[in-house]
Amino acid sequence: MLRQTHPPASSIGIERNEDPPRVASASFMSEVSARFPAQAPEDVDHGERALEAKLSRFVRLGAAETDALRQLGRAVHNVSANQVLIHEGIRIDHVCLLLDGMACRYKMLPGGERQILGYLIPGDIFDAHFIVFNRPDHSVAALCNSKIATIPIVRLAATIRKYPRLATAFACSALVDSAILREWLLNVGQRHAEQRLAHLICELQARLKIVHRVSKDGSFDLPIDQVTLADTIGLTLVHTNRILQRLRKAELICLRQRRVTILDYPRLVFLAGFDENHLHLLLQEI
Amino acid sequence: MLRQTHPPASSIGIERNEDPPRVASASFMSEVSARFPAQAPEDVDHGERALEAKLSRFVRLGAAETDALRQLGRAVHNVSANQVLIHEGIRIDHVCLLLDGMACRYKMLPGGERQILGYLIPGDIFDAHFIVFNRPDHSVAALCNSKIATIPIVRLAATIRKYPRLATAFACSALVDSAILREWLLNVGQRHAEQRLAHLICELQARLKIVHRVSKDGSFDLPIDQVTLADTIGLTLVHTNRILQRLRKAELICLRQRRVTILDYPRLVFLAGFDENHLHLLLQEI
DNA sequence: CGGAAGATTGATAACTCTCAAAAATAGTGG
DNA sequence: CCACTATTTTTGAGAGTTATCAATCTTCCG
């Protein structure tokens, strides 16, 4: 009855219901910091640019605003692949900015089934607002070794107060996030297997392009295994693998060594029924 | 290849891609008003209470706040079943408050497939923020004859400014909305057919109970046909019908004449894996 | 080199869809 | 109140998709 999408043992390191996350005795951040000491800011130029790049799609950013954004991402931490970033016990007075790498939101079912709810890419901010009574309604985990910056909420609030345009930009970004979630529901609910996968790839490329994570040839890193891919589009690992092979055989995409190359973009877009309108890419000055 | 979930002719009245919505020459509201003249406020006591009831789950509401909420819902309109409430052409300076009845958000695919993204029940507010460049990323339609109130955004903003608690309550409400969307993605992506339906029913009952739309015996109105139900849980009409019969045969629920009665709540909850935590029902004073 | 994780394959079962038609229900006008 | 139509629900049969189980092949990494 239950689909055994995952190997019995927690092979990918993300928390399973079978072994609940330990209660963090110390706060999340100090925990991370202990393992990965903060680095000098100059290491993360590239990462900080992602946030600017994303927000500048929504509003024109002046030098002051750009500078303010850079100030936000000073407290840098490295997190390792599969590390759970948000779970019970996290302090709620910080938000996290993903500077580099990739992470995901996900939910688990008692039987071990996992649904990925979204990918976090550089420039994305995630917080713990969805936690009430110490019970988050979903978790966030790094998909590969990543860099995150922690921003005290009061700090972010002050910045937003000072620069109304940033407030607008953050609001737009939140709207896009929820639009993506709706698109995912449509994807999993109504599209068939090939389309789901194709659509996901189109969307990821579009989002990554904005933050300069796509090469000239259109290829990009996708640091996830096929189990995670399967849990994203609501299919089994085995079936996902076969769908993947069909897309490869059709010479639409190439996925090797955690890197995707889109071989025939027009045909892939057509197959997926992809309309990047839902990413609101064209929005300027709301 | 394409699932023909819907009859070829637009039987349920919701816009299809085949016949795009006409461009509203007048604004949406004046359009509605013309057909259904606004009523005297005293008719809608029950409806307004829904919003209060919902928000009071999040913060304690004083008399002044309750009163402010009631002032919001003065401009009442009746809308008919299947009427599209949000589409291109809508004015973006109002939000809508559903006073009575039921509505849904949905997305369409070029092939005619439709995915319901969420149900709006009394006390729910929906706006057009997701519209940019005159292209909404999804639509909203009434599921049955309903009553809505339109609130100028400036008015809502003023109220929120004046009563910070209401701001908190609205924020919480928005968090719950997105939590529900995540839960739906989990539902459609990972649960099997019976569980999906069971989960939907549990969730609707929980939400409707808050706004006093559930009878003593636990039954509630569900003014939708099985096609809509199918488009909600990502299954075919035929299959949904069969699943429904299974739940009936198992004496878990009874669905007749657009009314659901839960016959065995504990067993239904168990089957669904329903955890009302995601509705954040217990939240008080964030 | 050896093990572990990840990807792939094959065979079979289960689930879900499609097509087509019949039964039941709701709505309407006489 | 009944006849009549349109909508909605239900049924049946068969095809197609997706899941499950189990094994093999690859790749990664110490």
Which short descriptors sum up this protein?
40% helix; 286 residues; DNA-binding; alpha+beta; disordered N terminus; homodimer; four-stranded antiparallel β-sheet; globular
Topology:
The structure is a homodimer of 286-residue chains.
Chain A: H1 28-35, H2 45-55, H3 63-72, E1 76-79, E2 84-86, E3 94-100, E4 103-108, E5 114-120, E6 125-126, E7 131-132, E8 135-136, E9 139-142, E10 146-152, H4 153-162, H5 164-190, H6 193-210, E11 220-221, H7 226-233, H8 237-249, E12 253-256, E13 259-262, H9 265-272
Antiparallel strand pairs in A: 1-10, 2-9, 3-6, 3-10, 4-5, 4-9, 7-8, 11-13, 12-13
Helix pairs in contact in A: 4-5, 6-8, 6-9, 7-8
The structure holds a DNA duplex (30 and 30 nucleotides).
Describe, in plain words, how this protein is organized in 3D.
- The structure is a homodimer of 286-residue chains.
- The longest helix of chain A has 27 residues, at 164-190.
- Chain A is globular and about 50 Å long.
- Chain A has 286 residues and is α+β, with helices and mostly antiparallel strands.
- Chain A has 9 helices and 13 strands.
- The first copy, chain A, has helices spanning 28-35, 45-55, 63-72, 153-162, 164-190, 193-210, 226-233, 237-249, 265-272; strands at 76-79, 84-86, 94-100, 103-108, 114-120, 125-126, 131-132, 135-136, 139-142, 146-152, 220-221, 253-256, 259-262.
- Chain A has a 4-stranded antiparallel β-sheet, sandwiched between helices.
- The A-B interface holds A 1, 105, 107, 109-110, 113-115, 117, 129-130, 132-133, 135, 137-138, 175, 178-179, 181-186, 188-192, 231, 233-234, 273, 277-278, 280, 282-283, 286 and B 1, 105, 107, 109-110, 113-115, 117, 129-130, 132-133, 135, 137-138, 175, 178-179, 181-186, 188-192, 231, 233-234, 273, 277-278, 280, 282-283, 286.
- Chain A binds a DNA duplex (30 and 30 nucleotides) through helix 8.
